[in-house]
Amino acid sequence: MLALEGSAPQLGRTTDLSANGVSISLPQPVAAGQEAQLRFDLLVEGTVVPVQGRARTLYCILSNGEFKVGLQFLHLDMGAMTAVSRYLR
Length: 89
Prior knowledge:
Layout (H helix, E strand, L loop, with lengths): L1 E3 L8 E5 L3 E6 L8 E10 L2 E17 L2 E11 L1 H11 L1
Antiparallel strand pairs: 1-4, 2-3, 3-6, 4-5, 5-6
């Protein structure tokens, strides 16, 4: 879920994850450079862990009928950073 300020939240699908950010596919385009609230779930060691925090949109490109949006994490709490790190191992 991606919630840009002043817009309704959009549900999307994560397609790539790194320690610094995530790429998601959305049905509608978004402008680069916007800050947003981001929420997604990770399966870490058999447990679903919700991750949420602030992110900045870096790019938005049309790909296979969807908009691929690259986001850089801005403010993840320690629990979210730990979940991402454990997922990437």
